[in-house]
Amino acid sequence: MVGGQKPLNTSTPCAACKLLRRRCAQECPFSPYFSPHEPQKFASVHKIFGASNVSKMLMEVPESQRSDTANSLVYEANARLRDPVYGSMGVISTLQHQIQSLQSELNVVRAELVRYRCNQDQNAVTATPSMVNLRGYPPVSSSICSQTASESVDFAAVSPSTTLTNMSDNKGTIRPWKS
User: Fold this and answer.
1) With left for phi above 0 and alpha for psi between -120 and 50, is residue 85 left, alpha or beta?
2) Model confidence at 155, in pLDDT bands (50, 70, 90)?
3) Cα 89 to the chain's mean position, in Å?
4) Nearest CA to 44 among 89, 84, 91, 85?
């Protein structure tokens, strides 16, 4: 060390120091998280948050979490550049809407499956007097099959491994089967 200064990093400067056009000190707060091989990461973070704020944010978290923090800042900055108004919240909102849409679609498919299974079980009962289900499916509860198509069935609580026997309560909603 010369004159009490920190030793300089003799290797390639990190992306932050390159962008800021300064020498990369060995204790540079950015070098472990912003590789010189990916300069666009720090460029987007710097554009949104500023180098000083990024440095402060990285120093506020424990060292074990700094890598995750830097990755989160990169993700948020890129999302903010794509969507300046909503940023990552726009992505989260879109994904939540997709989940709701797919859940509704899954509920419709499950209701169709129950109707199909009810029809199959009713046909099997008339065909086999012993009431043995030859297809390997558990028999469907008659209360589920007696529901009309206009009644709503809540399949949100039904997992794929749940059997359909003893799943209907008196309100017509589906509940998980209990042993």
Assistant:
1) alpha
2) low
3) 13
4) 84
